[in-house]
Amino acid sequence: MIILGINAYHPDASVALMKDGALLWAAEEERFNRIKHTSGFPRLALQKCLEENGISPSEVNAVAISKDPRANFKRKMVFVMKQWPKGELLLDRLKAFRKAIRVEDDFRDCFNLPAGALNPKFIHVEHHKAHVASSFFLSGFERSTFLSIDGMGDFSSAMWGIGEGNHLHALGRVYFPHSAGFLYTAATQFLGFLSFGDEYKVMGLAGYGNPQFLKQFREMIRLKPDGQFKLNLDYFQHHQGNAKIRWEGGRPEQDIIYSQKWVKIFGKERQPQQPVTQREQDMAASLQVVLEEIYFHVLTNLYEKTKEKNLCLAGGVAFNGVANGKIKKNTPFENIYIQPASGDAGTAVGAAAYASYVLFKEPRLFVMNHALLGTEANEKEIESNLMAKGLSYEKLSEDKLIQETVKALVNGEVVGWFQGKMEFGPRALGNRSILADPRRLDMQDILNLRIKHRESFRPFAPAVPEEKASDYFEMDCPSSPFMIKVFPVKSKKKSLIPAVTHVDGTARVQTVSKETQPLFWKLLMEFGKQTGVYVLLNTSFNENEPIVCTPDEAINCFLKTKMDVLVLSHCFLRKHTAVDTAA
Q1: What whole-number distance in Å separates Cα of residue 295 and Cα of residue 175?
Q2: Cα torsion 323, 328, 333, 336: sign
Q3: What is the pTM (predicted TM-score) of this model?
Q4: Cα(first)–Cα(last) distance of the chain, in Å?
Q5: What is the CATH number of domain 139-338?
């Protein structure tokens, strides 16, 4: 059975493909249309998905959409009738239902199919069910608790319960307008980070501050029995209809969520162009503490209800690696699974998995232990792109490629590394990466000034062979392949890897397995053999744009930045040599 999962008309539009219960392909639309967090219908990703897998639209049995406008409808109606004008209510409902119906039309238009030519069954999966399904069903656990927690989806901001076999049993929810994600977003906006998805910047900023504003942030949240929590709505305005997300041209923009009470408490909000001061650092640190209090409150109550040691996490809040790295210390859970696209892009995978395992009762045989699920370029395409730009390159054997790349890294050069299938999710995990020597204290500044052009307080992440990770990091698990947990750097190792050690002594670790990423693992091992340090700095291959998808985009990024070396599959080129020779 062939099932497509689609996240549409929502930020981070995406597509996933499952066949006979196995996940074959997944990618975000932003990688193809080059608009960060793009919304709308993922037309380009859908076309690429079927094309690369040799599947025609007529072969698709079901299309699962991670949005159900009927979900929680009665609760939604009661709230809106009390809070919002009836005309606005009707307009919002009409828009939601139009979008639900439009999926079929947009799917048909995507492939120029005539009316009545659709064969697949169209299925709507509630937002948080899709989140949970993306984690539990692909975790490999036969039984596990689950938590989905984010901003808002289908009138709910959190859902928790227990999964067993092919079943999901919800035990609790938090409904609109209460949301841990909205608390974090409101603070992100107040701190002057106004682009959609900027919350991760605040997580990095928190490491520089002290939690001096705990009292103020705790006033914004009320922890309730049974894992529930509520916002103090005096500090917010989304419940008044002022939290809409628009996507003119595909780029999402969100209304300001915080109320003027924030200004009375903290002073004037920071403008994006203003410098970050100690106040912003301390606010970020305080926010992080309070988010963790909410997180652990829900999780502790969930464990008390279930006594289950396994935990599957999903939702935008599950991207908070700092909190994720503390779960074992603060709760009784022992085994934690978070898939690499835990945000809204991952709901495409979840919708497909829900349809496959719950509705069609296919066996759960697939475990998502890597993120290499996107589009892939072949050698011919790579060489064609290089020649079209008149660039000189060497085509090397695998061993020679590793040796030359390590030599460049040891010499302090910055390497663009483009291999195999593109990663699914927001992290470059060794196939669309920029790599550098973590031993250099100045490497963070070099990357920020020459290539990334981003805020200086944002940390860079380490990649390490799975079997070497415990030598460098105080990890509470044997592996962390998705760069989604933050752990302390061992005290004796901090001076060895300063470029990937955050100001608070932590790092967002990516462990690399020989089985899933043999070439990247081999590179890390060879760098370790030559330097004694089995760690590389790994950041995403981009410059203020979505991560590169194609060889052409990788080459363009290489040429317009001050990167030194580009490795495209087995093709190796240095900038000065390639350009000089071509000239």
Answers
A1: 16
A2: positive
A3: 0.95
A4: 53
A5: 3.30.420.40
